[in-house]
Amino acid sequence: MAGKRDQSGIISLIGIACSFISGGLTWLAIWNHPTVSAEINWFTIGASTFKVGILLNNLSALMLLLVPTVALPVHIYSRAYMKGDPGIHRYWMYLSLFCFAMLGLVVMDSLLLMYIFWELVGFASYLLIGFWFTRETAVQANKKAFIVNRIGDLGFLIGLAIIFTQFKTLNLIDLFGETGLIYQSAVTNGQWVSPVNSMDQIWLTIAGLAFFLAAMAKSAQFPLHVWLPDAMEGPTSVSSLIHAATMVAAGVFLLATVFPLFNESALLFIAIIGTITAASAAYFALGQYDIKRILAFSTISQLGFMMVGIGIGTWDAALFHLVTHAFFKCLLFLSAGAIIHEMAHLKTHSHLDFDPQDLRNMGGLKKYMPKTFILMSVASLALAGFPLTSGYLSKDSIVISSFEWALSKGDFYLIIPVSLIVISILTAFYIGRLIFKAFLGDFRIMDQVKDKLHGAPLHEASKTMLIPMFILGICCLFPLFSLNPVSYHDSWLMDGLLLDEYTFAPCHSAHLIIPLILLIGSIISWVVGWKWYVQHTYSLNTNSLALKAAFNQGYINELYQWIFVDGTLKIARFCYWFDRYVVDSLVAFIQFIVLSLSRLSVWIDKYIVDGFVNAVASVAYWTGNQVRLVQNGKLQTALYSVFLFVLLGLIYLIFF
Amino acid sequence: MITLTHFLVVSACIFCIGLYTVLSKKNAIMILVGIELMINAAILNFVAFGKYDKVSYGGQIFALFAIVLAAAAVAVGLALVLNVYRHYKTINPDEINELKDK
Amino acid sequence: MEIILFYAFAVLAIGSALLLVNLKNIARALFLFFIVLFAMAGLYLFALADFVAITQIMVYVGGVLILMLFAFMLSNKELLKDLKDSSGTFLSMPRWQAIVLSLGFLILMIFGIREWQQSPPTWIQQARENNTEIISTDNNIQQIGLRFMTFYVLPFEVISVFLMMALIGASHLSRKERDR
């Protein structure tokens, strides 16, 4: 049990199990019951007092249930996955830290405290991404993640400042409760007027955009998504918990919390960014060969979906998608982790050098890992939105609502729902590609490993891994969320998070047509994928420019490197040059002047001042020397002076 | 006609020459010579004015006294010069310029 | 006629005195002094003081000068050496301060004489008028002797005592030192 020698992580397990139990009990107590909140005074500055406290409403109770439900299987899975790793005690430590931060984030009743936990979650992510810190790529990745997250934190701070200036409080109940300040303020005559302050209406938009900036960084929206693919450097169990299910969902949670703050322009902006994110991520996923990268881009794309859900006003649909996404994405990552685990074993046993995560090295794994195959397929169906899965309910809710919203706003806005439909079909395609390339067909590196082994090259994952995956698989199916597999409005989740009404009218025909389009599109993409990847009749050019661009993530990373990193280095080099040559030469010049002045003053002192004194002394000496001659003791001198004075006396007497 | 003025002019010249001798000679004896010249000039002066004193012959009598005094002075002076020479081995007045004995 | 003789004697006296001053050779200077004394005696004669002239020759020339010569001869070998060395330079460079002073005196005295010449004292005028001027046919010696014994007897005695003192003093001063 003691410190570093303990490999079992039993304390963390017990901890997360207790969180799960207490989370469940809390949910039972709070869901569809009155809100509970409690607070105490924390500190006072001037006239304002800051309090710390807990707020439990439907939203926070839901999150409080979700997080341990996803974290507990991951903890159990980690026991098997991280076995034998030399840093495992750090792993349990960081994982528990993350769970603490995430749970704290969802129950806090003040925006300031949310910010504190927000930062803590980002920090825990940094620690876990760089878990294998001896690898250079891991260190670069965690630095990148933290720096991009900081940009988002700046947005959060700006939003905090604006809200505090406008409302003089950061308490969620005071702001967003039923009779909150936000509902008492309105925009009149170009001014955003609240009960305690008023400012120009542009600040309302800015506050909304500031909070969205925070969500952009945390939830990996375009263009701040660049950290998430690199975050795959961490262990797979970490990726499943943090970068699929919970932390990236924190952004969506924040936006749902401060939803009343957004005005029309902010919401439209959110929707547009969400769409762009979803589209670009789906495009990039098409060209990746690393399993985890495909799943990372899939996460970004689905987060884009959630942002669109918020942008069109249906944040309950966005949250529904968040919950279902947590389950099936976590399962996808855990299955991928099982595959990678087995491939890494193969690598060490056969002493070959191949990338255990590369799709091109896999194939036909259905033979060796059938249970993993089944579970991963279930999760993929959920991701694609196939009927009878939970994903079908949540994804269709967003797409259908977006269609209704676009109809109510104007025909130009139909771009968004149409894009979402295309993206969904692409989603089905790329996840199908993954399944086909990994599980079906023949094992691609079989020839290389055949001689080195006896028996099957890969084994099924251990029970410790399979059981959590199985639990998550059950949650991917529809019964957990709604007894009606077709209509999402009957889901207990949507009922609980009920908004009074949407701002747009429902369109019943859309409820039928769109799911049909999505289903047909998914089946067609799977048939095409089957032909290309299983039967190897690939009809496109592998080295085409479009595929290359997708593989290189649209060269966005290179762009950022060129602008920000190189730019900063150039500025630093310029400052160094400036300091070295301009400032130092200025200092040297001043030094030269001072030295010259001092030399001049030395010269003056030595020759002029001293010279004057010496001259006076010389004159005195010379005069004395001359006068001395009077007393030379000679007789004739005395006689001479006598007669001289006699003569002078006579002259005086005679003439004057 | 030899007037009083002639005598006085001659006397003045002799006196000045004697003065110059006293002040600028490097020999003690020459200094005494200079003194003698000055006294002689004074005696000439006496005699010149005594011409006009028949009543008491004052000029000529004092001329005689002056001659005697000059002689006595020279005698004593030369005795002193002799002593100085014995002591200092020189009679250059420039070298006898200290109060203490050498 | 007289005046020419007077000028001759005067020039002789002054010229010898000047030459005396400028010679480095002291022996020759003393001999020039000898000539100066004779010339001065001559000048006394022109002032009708015959006894003073004779006394001058006897005392000065015959006594003082001889004394000086002896003293000079006895004074040092260095001077004799000096005589030999200084034969090259006949005249010595005079010191300018002494010249200036002497000339100053000369000018002053000549100036005074010229001033005085305008207004001589009254007693000289009276002497001329009252015929109490000495004339060449007077018996000076007799008159001087008479005056010595009656009018000036005290200075006469004093001066003889003084001479004796000088004699004793000089001989004492120049005594030979005993060997120590």
Automatic annotation (TrEMBL), chain B:
Gene Ontology CC entries for this record: NADH dehydrogenase complex; plasma membrane
Record-annotated membrane-spanning stretches: 6-23, 30-49, 61-85
Please give a single GO biological process term from the UniProt record.
ATP synthesis coupled electron transport
Q: Which reaction does it catalyse?
A: a quinone + NADH + 5 H(+)(in) = a quinol + NAD(+) + 4 H(+)(out)
Where in or outside the cell it occurs: the entry states: Cell membrane; Membrane
- Membrane-topology descriptor: Multi-pass membrane protein
Where is the major localization of this protein? membrane
Taken from the record, one Pfam family name reads Oxidored_q2
GO MF terms listed in the record are: NADH dehydrogenase (quinone) (non-electrogenic) activity; quinone binding
Q: Which InterPro entries match?
A: NADH_UbQ_OxRdtase_chain4L/K, NUOK/Mnh_C1-like
UniProt EC number = 7.1.1.-
Record keywords: Cell membrane, Membrane, NAD, Quinone, Translocase, Transmembrane, Transmembrane helix, Transport
Q: What class of enzyme is it?
A: translocase
Q: Which NCBIfam families match?
A: PRK05715.1-2 (NF004320)
Question: Which family is this protein grouped under?
Answer: Belongs to the complex I subunit 4L family.
What this protein is reported to do is described as: NDH-1 shuttles electrons from NADH, via FMN and iron-sulfur (Fe-S) centers, to quinones in the respiratory chain. The immediate electron acceptor for the enzyme in this species is believed to be a menaquinone. Couples the redox reaction to proton translocation (for every two electrons transferred, four hydrogen ions are translocated across the cytoplasmic membrane), and thus conserves the redox energy in a proton gradient.
Subunit and partners: NDH-1 is composed of 14 different subunits. Subunits NuoA, H, J, K, L, M, N constitute the membrane sector of the complex.
- Protein name in UniProt: NADH-quinone oxidoreductase subunit K
Taxonomic placement: Bacteria, Pseudomonadati, Bacteroidota, Sphingobacteriia, Sphingobacteriales
